[in-house]
Write a structure and sequence with these properties.
Helices cover 42% and strands 8% of the residues. By secondary structure, the protein is mainly α. The longest helix has 21 residues.
């Protein structure tokens, strides 16, 4: 485990060639759904990252905002029906909203999980992320004995989940190719990339001179207390010596405890207190990394400049830089719309104090629901 910010920067950035891979191993024939950027290693990861990164440019992401906005409209309709001051688990509602956004922008379909919580897409997604005993065992094997999965060709997801996503994707691609339907989503971008080797989109509607100012501090402080993942792992690809003389041998696994660093009072006094102003001055390098850092930082973190005017309908905010992240685009959109129309209060049903994270899942997720009372303004 490495907690010194200087050494964190060395592992994740300056000596990336020694720590370029995560510890996961992928058998694409046994587990085709594992063949993605988070798990891939070596040249396969580099090739895919280089191909996909241009799809996350600010212009292409703004081009897709129309599909996000459709999901925001659905969320707004749900809030209008539920804004009666009664206790509501906002975690479940936001999970359904997120599923709709992912399905629409990522798969090119509209399951409308917000209107239909029992939709097939929502049920499959819930099953995929459910911290049941089988999924927990798979997570344990991935993190501790990844080669065991390879040797015994163990399937990491059920045949039901595997078949659903593969069949859905094949059907969508066939439909697009056979009908010529064009939709503003990643499927369209990937099709063009595969068939033409490059992606061209009509930017007439999005090349507008939009100027705005925003304050990122609230967002940054939230992600400090509750980062996307609590830790990062890397595998040492060749022997490496740290500045203090410690040798990390090839094949050893290195853990970077993000949550621990984010809540270390040495770098963030009163770490559990919500204090956005603490980011008026930049944090120490290597102490704040909610999306990872270095060449393997989350691809969804790439800049989405000037999306906020679209999300907020022209609302101007005061503050610093103008960079947005695709991973936050859907969140920014739904918050901007909701806070204009509704008042949110914490319900007495919530336990007082810090939100407890679920120890059974790899991402930062509350152990219990988050209950709110919603009123129309």
């Amino acid at each position: 485990m490495i907690r010194d910010p200087e050494y964190v920067n060395i592992v994740l950035k300056s000596s990336f060639d020694h720590f370029s891979d995560r510890i996961f191993l992928v058998d694409e024939k046994t587990n085709p759904l594992d063949e993605h950027l988070f798990f891939l290693r070596g040249n396969k990861w580099r090739y895919l990252r280089n191909k996909i990164s241009p799809l996350f440019s600010q212009v292409k992401l703004k081009w897709m905002y129309e599909e996000i906005d459709k999901c925001v409209n659905l969320f707004d309709e749900c809030l209008a029906e539920l804004s009666d001051g009664k206790d509501l688990d906002i975690k479940e509602l936001l999970a359904r909203y997120t599923t709709d956004v992912v399905a629409s922008c990522g798969f090119g379909i509209e399951p409308q999980c917000l209107k239909n919580p029992s939709s097939e897409f929502r049920k499959i997604g819930r099953e995929y992320f459910d911290p049941n005993k089988i999924n927990m065992r798979m997570l344990f094997l991935r993190l501790s004995i990844p080669r065991l999965l390879m040797w015994f060709k163990i399937k990491t997801v059920s045949a039901k989940i595997n078949n659903f996503f593969l069949t859905t994707t094949k059907n969508i691609l066939h439909h697009r190719r056979s009908t010529g339907v064009v939709r503003k989503d990643f499927v369209q971008l990937l099709l063009e990339l595969k068939e033409k080797g490059t992606v061209e989109i009509d930017t007439t509607e999005i090349e507008k001179d939009e100027t705005y100012k925003e304050s990122p501090n609230e967002k940054i402080e939230t992600l400090r207390i509750y980062p996307s993942v609590p830790a990062l792992n890397r595998e040492c690809m060749k022997d490496f010596t740290l500045p203090d003389g410690t040798v990390i041998e090839k094949g050893l696994h290195v853990l970077v405890p993000i949550l621990s660093l984010h809540r270390d009072p040495k770098y963030f006094p009163e770490p559990l207190e919500y204090k956005p102003d603490r980011f008026e001055n930049p944090p120490v390098n290597g102490t704040y990394m909610p999306f990872g850092d270095g060449p393997r930082t989350c691809i969804g973190k790439l800049p989405l400049l000037a999306l906020l005017p679209f999300c907020c309908g022209g609302i101007q905010q005061q503050g610093g830089n103008q960079r947005k992240r695709f991973a936050e685009a859907a969140m920014t959109s739904v918050l901007a719309r909701s806070l204009e129309k509704y008042k949110f209060e914490l319900s007495p049903m919530n336990n007082c104090g810090d939100i407890k994270l679920n120890p059974k899942v790899i991402t930062s997720s509350p152990l219990h629901g988050i209950f709110l009372r919603i009123h129309k303004l």
